[in-house]
Write a structure and sequence with these properties.
The structure is a single chain. The chain has 2 domains: 2-135, no CATH class; 173-334, Heat Shock Protein 90. The chain contains 9 helices and 9 strands. A hairpin with a 2-residue loop joins strand 8 (316-323) and strand 9. The chain has helices at residues 2-8, 23-50, 57-80, 91-96, 102-171, 175-195, 203-218, 247-256, 299-311; strands spanning 16-17, 20-21, 201-202, 225-232, 240-241, 264-272, 277-285, 316-323, 326-334. Helix 3 (57-80) runs antiparallel to helix 5 (102-171) and helix 8 runs antiparallel to helix 9 (299-311). The protein is α+β, with helices and mostly antiparallel strands. The chain is rod-shaped.
Length: 336
């Protein structure tokens, strides 16, 4: 578009005779823009990708300097020969006109040629930067997807290991409950193997998974442990959520909130507001692990944090901490 405007601009100023155009005047006026085009495309198509991009900056500057000097000299000689411009002025007009020295026009031509070479380099480098930026974003996306997949692969065995340990402990004193627990576990594994392979799952399915998991955990709890749940998710909800995003929080509550010798409690709420935000709040009694108990090493909560950063960057609020003898975890996820 720039070249079309530049090529058509002289048509508004050159003289016309009998409806025609002095084409030789137009061609003479186009010699200067034509040299700009030469410099621009030599830089854009050859000098920048072949020399400047290969870190030969000195050679690039020298070539442009000699090219600009050569073309500027050609324009200067063409002007002296009367090739450029509308031709000599009448003698009476020449007597009263004082022309600037020729070196000013020569310097002007050299400067415009340098600007044309700089424009060619700038546009080519901008295109290369956009390609590099697109490649960088694609690489970051691939890296994030690979890391997220790796986290999910780590999460499933971690969850399964904890659940199998619970069933193993249950077998020792009630084989019937252990069988029921294995049946419930098969439902959970079916969800983990088939339903959660997509990036998002319906919130209703995730809520059912949480209910089944808590019921599985209830089997091995004593009467001194109180577990209350309030899952307020409408069956008609169309909200989608990242799968297994809450399970590590619930696991953490059962690991650190339950004592075999002291009264314990776990209160869990899962609800959805009208703006697409899903709120999960868990409060439990706090019984820190002893030094001898090193199972888990806290990888569950760390995985939750990494997954939240990958899936919901800047769109979640996670508050957690100990207040007296109670541990509280509040996670708010903006699904929209």
């Amino acid at each position: 578009m720039v070249w079309l405007i530049m090529l058509g601009f002289p048509f508004f100023f050159i003289s016309r005779q009998n409806g025609g155009i002095y084409w030789y005047i137009y061609i003479s006026l186009m010699l200067v823009p034509f040299t700009w085009m030469i410099v621009f495309y030599i830089n854009y198509l050859w000098l920048v990708p072949k020399i400047l991009f290969k870190q030969h900056t000195r050679n690039y500057i020298i070539i442009n300097l000699f090219m600009s000097l050569f073309l500027g000299l050609c324009l200067h000689l063409s002007q002296d020969a009367g090739i450029i411009g509308p031709g000599p002025k009448p003698e009476k007009q020449q007597e009263h006109s004082v022309m600037p020295p020729n070196w000013i026009f020569f310097s002007r031509d050299i400067l415009t040629l340098f600007l044309a070479s700089g424009l060619g380099a700038t546009i080519r480098m901008n295109g290369r930067w956009r390609e590099a930026e697109a490649a960088r974003q694609e690489a970051e996306k691939s890296k994030a997807e690979a890391e997220l997949k790796n986290l999910k692969n780590q999460l499933n065995p971690h969850f399964l290991l904890n659940t199998l340990n619970n069933i193993y402990a249950l077998i020792a004193f009630d084989s019937n409950k252990a069988q029921q627990a294995l049946h419930d576990l098969s439902k959970l594994l079916r969800y983990m193997l088939y339903d959660n392979q997509s990036a998002r799952v319906p919130l209703t399915k995730e809520a059912d998974f949480i209910r089944n998991y808590i019921e599985l955990m209830r089997i091995r709890l004593t009467k001194d442990i109180t577990v209350t749940t309030n899952i307020s998710i409408s069956p008609e909800s169309s909200t989608l959520i990242a799968p297994l995003i809450y399970i590590s929080l619930i696991e953490n509550a059962f690991k650190h909130g339950v004592s075999s010798s002291k009264p314990s409690y776990i209160n869990m709420q899962l609800r959805e507001d009208g703006d697409g935000k899903v709120i999960c709040e868990i409060r439990n009694s706090n019984y820190p692990k002893t030094y001898q108990d090193q199972s888990g090493h806290g990888i569950g909560l760390e995985q939750v944090r990494k997954r939240l950063e990958l899936i919901y960057p800047g769109r979640y609020l996670w508050e957690k901490g100990i207040n007296g003898n109670e541990y509280r975890s509040l996670l708010v996820v903006d699904t929209k």
